[in-house]
Amino acid sequence: MAEVYSMQHEVLYYEADVTGKLSLPMIFNLAVLSSTQQSVDLGVGPDYAHANGVGWIILQHVVDIKRRPKIGEKVALETLAKEFNPFFAKRLYRIVDEAGNELVSIDALYAMIDMEKRKMARIPQEMVDAYAPERVKKIPRQPEPDHMIGDIPVDVDQQYAVRYLDIDSNRHVNNSKYFDWMQDVLGPAFLEAHEPTHLNIKYEHEILLGDTVRSEAQIMEDKTIHRIWSGDTLSAEAHIDWTKSEN
């Protein structure tokens, strides 16, 4: 039976944005840090996966944010390998404060990719055994992110070149970069006046070194809807719910 893995972490200044709170990209980086460390401890970390010619890819994140921790705050990073079938895996994440209050929760859907063929691969049985998840025939679908409203024009868009340091060890853009692109296009005035409370992002197609991406968004009173394009290929869709910042 799968167990919750937990590690302690103090929020560092370079993990925060201008508000002094943990940034959206770093929320995802810290979540992945916890599951990567769990995998290493179980002997099935990135080195093991790559030696077997495979790597994890994220298909979707559904996130709820009650409060973003601040610089210097000590938190626990928790993760659980919840459900696996031969091709997909569901993993849960939480960021918890010192009093045990849940600050952030993430429901993540994963698959494995063949590193050479760049196609979906079967999850090695040794990895399934190591995590000891619930084994299921079918993993329930996560809700779809809101799609852009067809009769409303895009409010903002911006192009970005994919740089060498945007690429991770799976040889595609690190998933946290999508949140850089989605937030950056909104501009500092919007970001400093709003706090994210819920996010749903679905990754449609991987982005590689040398690509040029376009981030576009529709901005509403308490929600933004996003698309990330790589050329003419839709790479990700997302929506973010916001509340007015108290700062």
Could you give the topology of this structure?
Elements: E1 5-10, H1 24-41, H2 46-51, E2 54-65, E3 74-84, E4 88-97, E5 102-114, E6 120-121, H3 125-131, E7 134-135, E8 156-161, H4 176-184, H5 188-193, E9 194-203, E10 212-219, E11 223-230, E12 233-244
Parallel strand pairs: 3-7
Antiparallel strand pairs: 1-3, 2-5, 2-9, 3-4, 4-5, 5-6, 8-10, 9-12, 10-11, 11-12
Helix pairs in contact: 1-4
Compact description:
By secondary structure, the chain is an alpha+beta fold. It contains five helices and twelve strands. The radius of gyration is 18 Å and the shape is globular.
Task: Write up this protein.
- By secondary structure, this protein is an alpha+beta fold.
- The protein folds into two domains: 1-141, Hotdog Thioesterase (Thiol Ester Dehydrase, Chain A), CATH 3.10.129; 143-246, Roll (Thiol Ester Dehydrase, Chain A), CATH 3.10.129.10.
- The protein is built from five helices and twelve strands.
- It has helices at 24-41, 46-51, 125-131, 176-184, 188-193, and strands at residues 5-10, 54-65, 74-84, 88-97, 102-114, 120-121, 134-135, 156-161, 194-203, 212-219, 223-230, 233-244.
- Strands 1, 2, 3, 4, 5, 6, 7, 8, 9, 10, 11 and 12 form a twelve-stranded mixed β-sheet that branches.
- Helix 1 runs antiparallel to helix 4.
- The longest helix has 18 residues, at 24-41.
- The chain is globular.
- The termini are far apart.
- The relative contact order is 0.17.
